[in-house]
């Protein structure tokens, strides 16, 4: 694996490439992704399911101040257009 010196050099390269202004945003989105992954794994263990179809989708609430992108729902016939 990596030693302390390699990790320090990698961190310096990341700071130079991304810039100090982007690091808090990157850390915030990584933390949010980790929280979502942990909650989904915990829910799957509690349900005893392996992602079987027929289960309702879980709703993940955004924290105050998070930017949330939305998309329209597929509609009653699963997104298929009227023919």
From TrEMBL:
This is Sec-independent protein translocase subunit TatA. It is a single-pass membrane protein. It comes from the Bacteria. The keyword Acyltransferase does not apply. Transmembrane segments: none annotated. Pfam families: TatA_B_E. Gene3D superfamilies: 1.20.5.3310. It is found in: Membrane. Keywords: Membrane, Protein transport, Translocation, Transmembrane, Transmembrane helix, Transport. The keyword Cell cycle does not apply. Residues 41-83 are annotated as: Disordered. The lineage of its organism: Bacteria, Bacillati, Actinomycetota, Actinomycetes, Kitasatosporales.
């Amino acid at each position: 694996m990596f030693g302390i010196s390699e990790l320090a050099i990698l961190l310096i390269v990341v700071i130079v490439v991304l810039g100090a202004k982007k690091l808090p945003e990157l850390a915030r989105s990584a933390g949010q992704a980790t929280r979502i992954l942990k909650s989904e794994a915990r829910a799957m263990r509690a349900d005893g399911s392996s992602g079987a179809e027929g289960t309702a989708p879980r709703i993940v609430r955004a924290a105050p101040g998070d930017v949330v992108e939305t998309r329209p729902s597929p509609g009653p016939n699963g997104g298929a257009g009227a023919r």
